[in-house]
Design brief:
Radius of gyration: 35 Å
Largest sheet: 4 strands, antiparallel
Structural class: alpha+beta
Helix content: 40-55%
Number of domains: 2
Strand order of the largest sheet: 4-5-1-6
Order of helices and strands: HHHEHHHHEEHHEEHEHH
Distance between the termini: 45 Å
Shape: elongated
């Protein structure tokens, strides 16, 4: 009875994980790891290749105090007041310049102001120097909802800088929207907030992007490789950890704590 208890107590519950054995196990499956990693790289490439290309154009502006050149007796007071207003407008810029009313204003300018975008659209006829209109390019009028959906605003309260970005499927359209947006910023602030002391100064103008902003082959393939490698290693380790089958004499000593005295060879029966 006592010997039976001693034998039961000597049996180890669970499985001890040897890091070197685990690494060795992974190396024994290196071909599976390589195959799955390569497959995820190919999948990441295909997903990226079939992703719709989007183009982003950005216009950066600053809210500047118009009264900063006022006589020294009053400039400090005015500057402090105007700076406070500029900071508040900067904080609210995301709501101001992604609102329906602002998008309507931008859409109206795109649809009606023919000479505003000559630098981007060029001319219909180089001899007559007739400017191309937005409708010539777009094939009709753009809706304010399309303008609003494309706009994204970021700001820096420390410098009172506001960046307007437009992302669309067409690089020229993105540049046109941010250009019109900048042109509308001043009137929109003056009319809606009755602020005459702040002017919108342009820091950088929206250019026609030459490459899509959402297509990054190398980055996406690298992410795919990492995810595939980590996933297959985790799955293989899980199989290794939860596999409690006895396959070799060493497994008996390791998992059961029993010494193997000998092996009985398998005898093949003769027909």
């Amino acid at each position: 009875m006592d010997s039976t208890n001693n034998n039961n107590n000597s049996v180890k519950v669970g499985k001890e994980i040897d890091i070197r054995d685990a690494i060795g196990y992974l190396f024994s499956k290196i071909w599976i790891i390589a195959l799955i990693t390569a497959a995820t790289i190919i999948v990441a490439f295909l997903i990226t290749n079939f992703t719709t290309e989007l183009y982003t154009s950005t216009n950066k502006a600053m809210l500047i105090n118009k009264n900063e050149q006022v006589d020294n007796n009053t400039s400090d007071k005015l500057n402090a007041s105007d700076l406070s207003i500029a900071i508040q407008l900067t904080k609210m810029s995301s709501e101001i310049f992604t609102s329906d009313s602002f998008a309507v204003r931008v859409a109206e300018m795109l649809n009606t102001d023919d000479g505003q975008f000559t630098d981007i659209l060029g001319y219909k006829d180089t001899d007559k120097k007739e400017p191309r209109t937005f409708s010539d390019f777009y094939g009709g009028e753009i809706q304010y909802s399309a303008v609003k959906a494309s706009l994204k605003v970021s700001s820096n309260e420390d410098t009172c800088a506001v960046s307007l970005s437009s992302t669309t499927k067409n690089p020229t359209l993105s540049a046109l929207i941010v250009t019109a947006s900048y042109a509308c910023m001043q009137d929109h602030i003056n009319e809606n907030f009755k602020v005459e002391s702040i002017i919108v100064g342009q820091v950088d103008y929206g250019r026609v992007p030459k490459s899509p902003s959402n297509i990054h082959y190398f980055r996406n393939m690298a992410i795919g490789a990492v995810l595939g490698f980590v996933a297959i290693c985790a799955i293989l380790l899980a199989f290794y950890i939860f596999d409690d089958k006895i396959k070799t004499p060493d497994d008996i000593e390791k998992h059961l704590g029993l010494s193997v005295l000998g092996e009985i060879p398998e005898i093949e029966e003769e027909a």
